[in-house]
Batch of 2 targets.
Target 1
Amino acid sequence: MKHGTQDLALFGGTPAFVEDRRVGRPNQGDRRRFLDRMNQALDNEWLSNMGPLMHEFEDRVAELAGVRHCVSLCNATVALQMLIGDEATGGAPGDEVIVPALTFPATAHAVGWRGLRPVVCDVDPVTGLIDPEQVETLITPRTRAIIGVHVWGQACDVRRLEKIAESNGLRLYFDAAPALGCTHNDTPIGGFGNAEVFSFHATKIVNSFEGGAIVTDDDALAERMRAVRNFGFGPGGRVGHIGTNAKLNEAAAAMGLTSLDALADTMIHNRANYELYRAELAGIPGVRPVEYASQHRNNHHYMMITVDEAAAGLHRDLLLGVLRAERILAQPYFSQGMHQLQPYAEDPGRSLPHAEELCGQLLALPTGPAVGADDIKTISDAIRVAVANGPEVTSLHRARTADVDE
Ligand code: T4K
């Protein structure tokens, strides 16, 4: 239990944990089951190229997402690149795709990588989701598509975005990297727009080491994406598209299946963690858990808070430093808007105020099955002590960095 500034590890106190508590610790599921599946793959002598584990994984993800097709891939970034490069997007170099400011760089990079221009849109100040009203103002004759991002598993305003896309003849894709198991009202994330993309990166709620998927109800799109991931080979083994190699291998599928087996329990655990964090953090000035709309289901994979410097007495980055010294490896997701990334900062004067404010305030705290109630109480205690002494923590830190600079 920490009482004052002197107890904080940043200023010489004993760290709250002897081992790191991390955001993004992989949800591996039952190791024995994983090893059984690996043995199955090794016994089959079938390690990649659309093997049985990959097909089983695809069937289960499609069922969970409520869609006809799951095209599994080596990661979500390539999945987005493949959608942007698809003939139905129809982009020529310099054509535009509207993306939200608040997301992981992969969303904008997928557009830039295909030679199109990401046009960055501001977000809702509370949810951090793409603002459909501003999307409409950004549409030009060169716009080809909109990418909505279900940030932290929150559903975008999918119906409004679908209407905007339809009335302007645009493709609509959703980057659902963090949103497996989430819903919009009662409908699973996965079937909105023309296609959605999941990530199964090691840090996601379901992990396949590295992995991703395009999910869609569009039969023709799914067929094209299956060909593109496999060097363009279509039915009958004929190359009908420019292709790449983006297949999900059997080891990845074995991990994906095993992690998927644990998803329901993981979501229950995450939800309990979220509620406990809310109770523990209640009343700490300037620290607010991001609230998820109750009509949609969230997987609670990300425990997000905002830190308002004026009310908390210290900046998010300093709180992050305090926590890391305690071996609490929080993450500032996301700390840079897409319009601020060097390759896309074409108009340096352009300000997207809602995204910029969130980028300066957001912090992801450790959660997941490896994080229990005692951990959450200890983490919240460290935050409480840092904020209770916010001005002192800030001035001590300033004095120390000034000493180092001299
Ligand atoms: N769209 C969105 C909205 C996304 O959030 C992402 C990925 C994508 C697209 C692209 O998906 P993929 O192409 O990756 O499938 C991590 C992940 O690497 C990235 O996949 C994820 N978003 C992003 C939110 O988080 P970093 O740069 O924060 O990774 P890193 O190495 O700093 O690790 C984060 C934390 O996870 C650390 O506390 C360490 C911990 N960790 C990480 C790994 C790899 C582990 O405990 N074990 C591990 O094996 O990006």
Note: The longest helix spans residues 263-281.
Target 2
Amino acid sequence: MTSTSLPTQTSPSTLAAIGESRPGAEWWRTAVIYQIYPRSFADASGDGIGDLPGITSRLDDLASLGIDAVWLSPFFTSPQKDAGYDVADYRDVDPLFGTLGDFDDMLEAAHARGIRVIIDLVPNHSSDKHVWFQQALAAAPGSPERARYMFRDGQGENGELPPNNWESVFGGPAWTRVEDGQWYLHLFDTSQPDFDWTNEEVREEFRGTLRFWLDRGVDGFRVDVAHGLVKADGLPDYTPPEDADSMGGEEPVPYWGQEGVHDVWRDWHRVLAEYEGDRALCAEAWLPTVDETAKWVRPDEMHQAFNFPYAMSEWDAEQLREIISESLRAFPAVGAPATWVLSNHDVIRHATRLAMPGHPQGHGVGPATEGKPDPAAGLRRARAATALMLALPGSAYVYQGEELGLPEAMELPDDVREDPTWFRTNGERYGRDGCRVPLPWSAADPAFGFSPTGESWLPQPADWSALARDVEEQDPESTLWLYRTLLATRRAHDLGAAQLEWLDGYGDDVIAVRTGDVTVIANVGTEPVALPAGTLLVASDTFEGGELPADTTVWIAAD
Ligand code: BGC
């Protein structure tokens, strides 16, 4: 190791070209995709909820970060019972977020900066305010209107018991009874009735929705609950284990990962293939193994699938090594890129989670949770974990705010919570509000610059002033500058397309790999590790001397 002082940070002028997307086909194979959670990103209207004009106003910040694409969580017409994952009109924008014209402006402005745009499509269920569900309620049992959803007669003498014992992901029964005595299935909230995907009318409707947005110019779709659309014949009873992740579960689960879903993705693949420009589908499929997940990205299905086994792995070298090697075997084996993700709007932010193992996905953490981590220790691990992730070949997802090192907001008061999980479990599970708190843009402004009026739909922790973007902008050691440097170096060395080779001799607690011409050493253990010779390209934290401290990752170029 020749230099262990402050890593060279990328200067703003080197970053000038970063908004340009990688030229060439199949951009999604190596892309870094930034998740925007619109209600918490930037609020231009001042009502305390982020919106599309807010996103447009901040695109330069994203271009200077160095990402290739954005994925927007839902902004469609919705009563917002599940923060927009309850869609009432798939082909319009909710007034909370703006108008279709605002969407077109945002898309054009993103494309002008070389940023591609993926939107979120929610095919498993609609809102109960969707016109089809309203028609279904008004129609008789057995009618074509009811056949678009999963209506069934109940059990018991008078049908007073639900058709089976399924539980909703958010807690409580997965069935709700309507006035005439039938029941409808909702794997999520009561306000989110499941479609019946064996119905051709449902399939045709969604083809139309895909085309509606593809015609407007979107680059692809993140597909919500892509493991859930088709249910096992006969809807057999199923009881998940006590500590199961809310969206996962061991196989076989009669409502997850059924063979029939793959027909839907083959059909959608064909629709996207009608369009020019490498449009992509990304599966949100919570499955227990990487091998299972790879089935969603076979050549005629989706293009990418989130690597949730990676997202859920602990800060543990053995687990990481196993999942990385499985991912680099299983995804390429079907011709797809490996993907990597550490945070999103459904999981505890990794600056908290990695220092606090043992919390099932979706359950959340809050004021009464025991064993909360020291924020500095959590952040140190998060930076090291990101530096490892962004070195890996394939495509990576970054969730808004992680580039600022935001932790989970763990002290939210009960009366501000909005996640249906909190209500449906009577407060037993905190749910996901803690990872959805609006971003801090400028420390000195009300709501840290999130909205011009100082409104914010969830309160921001006071100590987030230190994590505001304008504060981090001035600090070369900030997490913001770390992300910029990682992304610029990843691009300069083409790491997304590199081959990965494992390096021996660093010990069990270390991840050591060569990817392209870069050596990456992540110290996941507690003891310092000797480093190889070379020039330090990036370090997840500063350190003195020739040994790499615990919870630190470096990228080194051979001299
Ligand atoms: C989304 C969640 C949402 C659920 C129901 C997901 O997996 O990411 O935020 O609550 O689907 O639509």
Note: The longest helix spans residues 200-216.
